[in-house]
Amino acid sequence: MSKCHNLSNQCLIDKAQNEKIDLVWDRYEKMLPLCGFGEKGICCRICMKGPCRIDPFGNGPQEGICGANADTIVARNLVRMMAAGAASHASHGKEIAKTLLNVGRQTAKNYSIKDPEKLKAIAKNINIDIEGKDIHQIAREVAYESLMDYSRFEEDTCTWLTNTITKSRLEKLEGLGVALNNIESSVADIMSRTHLGTDADPINLLLAGMKTSLGDYTGMQISTHLSDVLFGTPEPVISTANLGVIKKDAVNIAVHGHNPLLSEIIVDVVDELNHEAIAAGATAGINIVGVCCTGNEVLLRRGIPMASNYLSQELTILTGALEAMVVDVQCIMPSLSKIASCYHTKMFTTMPEAKIPGATHLELHDEHALENARDIVRQSIEAFKRRDESKILIPEEKSNIIAGFSTESIVNLLSKIDSEKPLRPIIDNIVNGNIRGVVLFAGCNNVKVTQDYNFVHMAKKLLENNILILATGCGAGAFAKNSLMNSEATKEYAGESLKAVLTLLGKEAGLDVPLPPILHMGSCVDNSRGVDLAVALANELGVDLNQLPLVASAPEVMSEKAIAIGTWVTGLGVPVHIGLMPPVEGSPLVANVLTEGLKDVVDGYFIVEGDPLTAADKLTQVIEEKRAALNIPS
Ligand code: XCC
Q1: How confident is the model at residue 510 (pLDDT cuts 50, 70, 90)?
Q2: What is the dihedral of CA 226, 326, 331, 442, to 10 degrees?
Q3: How confident is the model over 310-356, as pLDDT tens digits?
Q4: Quick check: is 565 in a domain?
Q5: Ligand 1: which atom is nearest the Cα of residue 445?
Q6: Which of 98, 236, 528, 581 could be disulfide-bonded to 404 (CB atoms 3.0-4.6 Å)?
Q7: Cα–Cα distance between 137 and 119 in angstroms, integer?
Q8: Is the domain of 164 the same as that of 300?
């Protein structure tokens, strides 16, 4: 298996081998063969009578020691994954909401309200009266209302779920009893019902999984939109992506993880400390680069170049030119600190819940955020002086990208064409068939497939079929690195009618160039932006989300968060393609519910297909079926 679709990365993989440094691909190979019980989801270690394993071939035990069968075990394991995903996204949103509350109280002096108009729009959307209130009071009230979604004990549905989806979808979810009132209690509920001897009914468990996954969605909405209030709503921005963004003559600092609370401030202090870096011999000054979703956050809002998505994160250090790896939460390989110790690279952890042995822990606090950021940058400048020139190898490749496609920025662009009904140009082109439909690519990289390969090959085929693509998370990272997020990609890969639309829209919206064929909407939590756009389109068309020619795809699905996201997307009525089977094959019943049964309940369902070209064909077919059902031209 080749490890990495991106050839530029290969030289660093070879370098690691020469230096006897194990990377994710080496550790994977050492792990083979993977445990078949774990892969199928039929290993239960929920109590200490076991662990128990169900024999998938039917010869050995078919029940655990307590009597739980494969269906119960698989469902319990799966919904625990969803709860972990929901907890991650929810705690991200909670940190942002707490910061907004402190800004409203005027106690977080290092943060401010960068987009007051968005704050007012949110307040209006969640039914907060803003008449006669100053901006700090509005911030406090919006933050309180958002934090209620973490603490409500009445049975009312979460505010950020109620106000962000179509009315008919909300009714459907409420009817099923999965429209939650409290994100954190939905997670606690999963932990309690999957405890030994509680819920053994796989369907009941899966419904609870859907509920907590909708908590994941609610947390994402809060994360995205309150981050926009604090740090600005993204506008189209030009930048670059891939390891070539690391500069030989700069103090290079990577920001990695998910939460923009510290990375934004680090970007803020670059200008004031640049001269110190130059004085230390870094003629190009300080160069901040992004990894994973923190990278996506600062790319969209600040134009910071993107060095890597998930799977190649270790290679940023292998360049020998990275002075610091600054991490917050989620998707950070613990191996980074060990690899950093082979180089001059400083590794900083910044969040109390995410410490890594070997890293320097410099905890972020609201009131000291600026000092924290300056400290990190100054220590990085010191590290620059310890560089070993003989170890430097920076691949040249980097791609030009246009990012920053928030729902608001898309609407702003389109309103230059039709100020009354800005979504009309998109709707008209979907209806007349110039754009056949939309695929939202999300999700991770998985070491089980060649990095980025599935994303790139699926996308090229879908674009050829005149399907517009939206992207977030490491999917967006894959496209950015592989030159699929710029105007040249539109010329090269979009089918004729899609190309014509993107060229015309780019021109009429006042850009000199075609819009990129894949719109970068942000980090994983910004899947909420994709929903916002879909909800706006559905409302404009007078249909529900399940009727839109829209499909989601996570071809290299990996994390528990991705399982939660995929599940709520199906709950919103949208089919979800995944390129790898989650650990459910040990229960044909559960596997069948996910790929078939869900359809009858929530309209959405999972499509499992490992081959990218076949997957593209299947998604195209789903889109064409949705068009036919809507009675729009074939
Ligand atoms: Fe993590 Fe968000 Fe997955 Fe990438 S895509 S590997 S979750 S960084 Ni969300």
Answers
A1: confident
A2: 50
A3: 999 999 999 999 999 999 999 999 999 999 999 999 999 999 999 99
A4: no
A5: 6
A6: 236
A7: 11
A8: no
pLDDT at 1: 47
Q: Whose CA is closest to atom 9 on ligand 1? A: 524
332 shares a domain with 206: no
Residue 262 sits in the same domain as residue 225? no
Cα 223 to ligand 1 centroid, rounded to whole Å: 15
Tokens found for residue 235: 């506008």
User: How close is the Cα of 400 to the center of ligand 1, in Å?
Assistant: 22
Q: Is the CB of 414 under 6 A from ligand 1?
A: no
Predicted confidence (pLDDT) at residue 491 exceeds the cutoff of 50? yes
Give the CA angle between residues 54, 57, 62 to the nearest 5°: 35
Say what the alpha-carbon torsion angle 339, 343, 345, 348 is, to the nearest 10 degrees: 40
Which of 171, 204, 231 marks a domain boundary?
231
Nearest to 502, CA basis, from 417, 619, 620, 626: 417
Domain match, 149 and 252 both = no
Which of 524, 529, 560 has the most ligand 1 atoms within 8 A of CB, as the residue to mutate? 524
Nearest atom (ligand 1) to Cα of 472: 9
Q: What is the rounded (10 degree) CA torsion for 180, 553, 523, 566?
A: 20
Residues 496, 362 share a domain: no
Give per-residue pLDDT as tens, 244-281. 999 999 999 999 999 999 999 999 999 999 999 999 99
Cβ of 292 less than 6 Å from ligand 1:
yes
Ligand 1 pocket check for 566: Cβ under 6 Å: no
Cα–chain-centroid distance for residue 410? Answer: 19
Dump pLDDT digits (tens) for 581-601: 999 999 999 999 999 999 999
Is 481 contained in some domain? yes
- Residue 420 has a CB neighbour count (10 Å cut-off) of 6
Cβ(609)–Cβ(619) under 8 Å?
no
Q: Nearest C-alpha to atom 3 of ligand 1 is from which residue?
A: 444
Task: Tell me which residue range forms the domain holding 341.
Answer: 243-391
Same domain flag for 434 and 551: yes
Token pair 């430097």 is found at 392
With contact defined as beta carbons under 8 Å apart, do 487 and 513 qualify?
yes
Domain count, the chain: 3
Give me the CATH number covering residue 191. Answer: 1.20.1270.30
**Residue 43: inside a domain, yes or no?**
no
Largest Cα separation within the chain, whole Å, is 72
310 lines ligand 1 (CB under 6 A): yes
Which atom of ligand 1 has the smallest separation from the CA of 258? Answer: 2
Percent with pLDDT over 90 in the chain: 93
| Cβ neighbour number for residue 252 with a 10 Å cutoff | 28
Q: Is residue 592 in some structural domain? A: no
